[in-house]
Amino acid sequence: MTKIKAVIIEDELPAARLLDKQLRELRPEWEVTVLPGTIEDSVKWFAEHPHPDILFLDIQLTDGNSFIFIEQARPQSMIVFTTAYDEYAVRAFTVNSIDYLLKPVHKERLESAIQKFERFSGMGKGELNKLLGIEQLLHSFAERQEKQYRTRFLISGAKRFYTIQVGDIAYFYSLDKVTFAVTKDGKAHVIDLPLSKLEEQLDGRIFFRVNRQFILSADSIRNIQHYFNGKAVVSVWPAYEGTIQISRERMTLLKMWLNS
């Protein structure tokens, strides 16, 4: 029986070690390789080695988005994506029948992804990629890159309607199921959209969702301080009265986003 080969591409070492450990416990007969979490190193490895049967691929790598890796390496593997929070990506992968794992990865969810792979294991790798919609996913991503983002909002005031420009907004937050846009002059405006919809309509180069309650513009972030249990606290301007916490996983993505 041919030994199944699996590769992990993950730029966070603790996450890579955890996934490697879980895979070896669930499928001790597999041959598991962990690659550095960079596009450059991973593309080089795929050019020099036979492609694995299954690839666990982090969405955001150290030097860019994993879709760049896919375009360059064209992996002939079943791909299981891992992500800290990317809701848009989760929806896209579901539509294209590609599995995904939310970090931190739970063993039961990993087992489910493995079983899905094993159901398809009798197919040729080319057929598998076609079935799972890799090409459609790449096309979907390309369309997303060319997307026209929202530029303004129509606000319903007490006595009149008025507009605010997206460029004038410092951040968005949700409170008691109501969404607010805080402009750079410190005023809060009620927006008739949930944060999940806003996230799809805003330019990801300018706005970043730090948690379930906040989407921040880069310009609004004043400083980031360490907090308990590996979390961090983000300070913004105009000031927010409460505490804006961010998880360790999201913090890693936020630092890469701010440095891009």
From TrEMBL:
Q: This chain belongs to which protein, by name?
A: LytTR family DNA-binding domain-containing protein
Keyword Amino-acid biosynthesis recorded: no
Q: Which UniProt keywords apply?
A: DNA-binding, Phosphoprotein
Which domain of life, per UniProt?
Bacteria
**Domain Response regulatory per the UniProt entry, residue ranges:** 5-118
Q: Which residues carry this modification: 4-aspartylphosphate?
A: D58
Organism whose genome encodes this protein: Phocaeicola plebeius
Membrane-spanning segments: none
Q: Using the record's annotation, list all stretches that form the HTH LytTR-type domain.
A: 153-260
A Pfam match is Response_reg
SMART domains xref list: LytTR (SM00850), REC (SM00448)
Which molecular function term from Gene Ontology is one that the record holds? DNA binding
